[in-house]
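Recall that a protein's primary structure is simply its ordered list of amino acids. Everything else, from secondary elements to tertiary packing, is in principle encoded there. The following example makes that idea concrete.
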Amino acid sequence: MIQLSSTAIGELKRLQKKHLPNGKLRIEVDASGCKGLAYQMQFARSPQPGDQVFDCEDIQVVVDSTSVKYITGLTLDYTEDLMGGGFRFYNPNAVETCSCGHSFAIASH
């Protein structure tokens, strides 16, 4: 299961309207970044075969079958502060994260 904070939902709705109305949020994990795995996000028109779809209020989150094992239980938040804003990933599977917050490692990787 994937969860979105209310601030993440608000920002995603704003971006969705601007970039791809009625699009779905695709979250993927790629083998990259300084910790070995990195989050990727984009809007997609529709799920692909094998994708899992999570309904989070008015946002559908699509995750491919490979990535889902790394981010089950993930909470996506959005913050704005004096030091800069952006999406924040809170992943219970991550044992180590990079200072940028977009790269992480898991115990078995």
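The beta strands are 3-4, 24-30, 37-44, 52-56, 59-63, 75-79, 86-90, 94-97, 103-106. The radius of gyration is 14 Å.
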